[in-house]
Amino acid sequence: MDKNKKGLNTICTHVGEVKDNEYKGATSPLYMSTSYAFEDVDVKRYPRYFNTPNQEALCKKIAALEHAEAALIFGSGMAAISTALLTFLKAGDHIVLQQILYGGTYHLITEEFNKWGIEYSFTQGWRPQDFEDLIKENTKVIYIETPSNPLLTITSLSGIAEIAKKHGLISMIDNTFASPVNQNPIDFGIDVVIHSATKYMGGHSDICAGAVASTDENIARIFSLAKNLGGSLSDYTVWLLERSMKTMGIRVKAQNENAQRMAEYLDSHDDIQKVYYPGLPDHPDYDIAKLQMKGFGGMLSFELKENLDALQFQKALELIKSSMSLAGVESTVLSPARTSHALLGAEERKRQGISDALIRFSVGIEEPEDLMADIEQALKKTKNAGQMQKR
Ligand SMILES: *Cc1c(COP(=O)(O)O)cnc(C)c1O
């Protein structure tokens, strides 16, 4: 039986279940043991070896979802990212990374890589040519994020895969924003797919985890470092994550639909300056997004008209919460300039096109009419406050 041939929601619900042979329960039993038999066993199991029954089961589900041969799960998205990067990079090597990166990844590179003697270059843009231009003799890895945070730029997956193959490099993607529901980079030739499972895989803002999917050979190499670094995930969290992922397909599809509705609503709104969403036909890379994504995702960003105070607007929202993280079933907003991208400094933010008025919107599964009503009342309050100040 080829597990990859099953449909999305069947994989989400069933692949990687731990069979309850004793009681025939409907869900996977949870094995919390940190100590398993050592003598006379085929597999020596231990949580930090990433091979407890629940860990192995969840890895099968994630591999099936990403059309990969194998997967590993980690204690956080950053544990997955750092372990994957360090597997394929050593002192003297060089990596080309996308300019617009998740903040934690940017800090890992800029704060730690010099210590380890690993060279890095950030691209100026997000087109495949921007990456190829920076490849050197010692380059080993190309690292991308598409759709990116917070401007939702789209990079051609097949374009990057082609460059990586031509130069004998490992291509890696942080696929968190798309989720496996909307984008399967391995189908386009990308080598290593990474997720912060804290986001769409968990989906309820109550789990911190990470995942990597790739070939058996690459996952064996990543595992070999992972067991030494020790970033494994507790079985209780693994079990919760398996449960959450059963509904990932329907959650993310609802979020795609809501985000599309909200993007169109904001795009035609008199008080909104600009909307960044790959599902809008005037997005500069709409055609590439349509080619490589099955849905355009639940993330969008927008800017208010100049006369409106973005912070005041954010504070006036009632249903939509201000929140650091993203991808939960509840809608949240954040100001990248004041939070995730604050440490970049004003000049670098300007260079990347991240304005102070930019608001990142993680669209949840609420009724879009209620989200629109919340935005309307917040805009009204923001305008009234603006007029009061002028008096
Ligand atoms: C949150 C996030 C990460 C980091 O994941 P953690 O689980 O917080 O360690 C990495 N990449 C992207 C795109 C993210 O949104």
TrEMBL record:
N6-(pyridoxal phosphate)lysine modification, residue list: K199
Domain of life of the organism encoding this protein: Bacteria
Pfam families per UniProt: Cys_Met_Meta_PP (PF01053)
Gene3D superfamilies tied to this protein: Aspartate Aminotransferase, domain 1, Type I PLP-dependent aspartate aminotransferase-like (Major domain)
PROSITE patterns linked to this entry: CYS_MET_METAB_PP
Molecular function GO terms recorded: cystathionine gamma-lyase activity; pyridoxal phosphate binding; transaminase activity
Reported cofactor(s): pyridoxal 5'-phosphate
GO biological process, any: transsulfuration
Keyword field contains Methyltransferase: no
Keyword list, A-Z: Aminotransferase, Pyridoxal phosphate, Transferase
Gene Ontology CC annotations of this record: cytoplasm
PANTHER family: CYSTATHIONINE GAMMA-LYASE-RELATED, TRANS-SULFURATION ENZYME FAMILY MEMBER
Protein family membership: Belongs to the trans-sulfuration enzymes family.
Protein name: Aminotransferase class I/II-fold pyridoxal phosphate-dependent enzyme
Originating species: Ulvibacterium marinum
